[in-house]
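Our working data are protein records whose layout never changes between entries. Getting from the letters to the tokens is the skill we practise here. To make this concrete, we reproduce a full record directly below:
***
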Amino acid sequence: MATVTTPRRSPALAWAGLGVLVVLALAALARYLSAAVPELTKGTALAGIGASVEFPVYAILLGLLGNVLLAGTGLRDRLAGGFRTEFFIKTGLVLLGASINLAVIVRAAGPAIVQSLLLITIVFGFSWWLGGRLGLEDKLRALLSSAVAICGVSAAIAAAGAVQAKKEQLAYSASLVIVFALPSIFVLPWAAAALGLPDEVAGAWIGGNIDTTAAVTAAGTLTGEKALEIATIVKVTQNALLGVVAVALTAYFALKVERTGATERSVARGLWQRFPKFVLGFLAASVLTTVYIGLVPAAESKAALGVANDLRTWFLILAFVSIGLEFRAGALRAAGWRPVGVFGAATVVNIVAALGLALLLFG
């Protein structure tokens, strides 16, 4: 009589499950720190720093710390199946789309749309050109250019999906965004006051220049209520253009950078296969949010969007923790100083161009 054997549970699946638990634990700690540190430092000399450090900083640092500890114990590679960076990132960006009300952009952001289109074109073009002059690899300069020109880490994530960049390149780009955004929170409001800029101009300058939405909110708050309103509209407008840039990068890399004499049909198939489908989710979420806000009372829509924004924050924290856990230093050492130089130079161009456009369109 034949015996029936019960298949054993895959050890790899069990290790992946443990990896997910590690990510969840570190993410919970990062979320706690992002809420607790501002409270603990309130009223002290560190209050400004405590309030301005955002959750990506805690998440990446904790992920890197976990990376070192797990690598030292030989467990990192076994647990790596649970570091679901791509899934967390894509889900977070789809939820980012749920925070964009397209009706607000259409009604109130005529100058903001013009500024965003011109600013993205100028800064992305300069960063791409300089990266090429300095010999950066195309995928890395696509990430750097998107991050500095559009909306920081979110743009780098979308670009990474479009050009199929390495995780180390994404981690590098995200780190540069954070390093440059933190001092901008304090420097730009001070500079706006020193230059005597009207609140509308100051807000447009801040929204067009600082790369992350949370940092824009912090800097706008320091500048004034009207400046915060304009800065938010400008930044949301730039966020909305994220999908357009992702489509353009997908087409460019598929048709120009990596084309190898394929037929038109195979090129079209390859273009669709490599296109980051989550961008469609991002756009769909924006449309659904716009329709939903128009159909329900303001209090109800505000509560629902609050839940969506909280979920987005959680998924992005999970993504940044996973980036830290998967990080490999070798690629960054090989890149050297050139990406920092490109990002820094593009930031200077962004500051000057954003100020000129803010004065022209909002002055």
Summary: Residues 85-362 form one domain. The two ends are 89 Å apart (CA to CA). The longest helix spans residues 11-41. The chain has 19 helices and no strands.
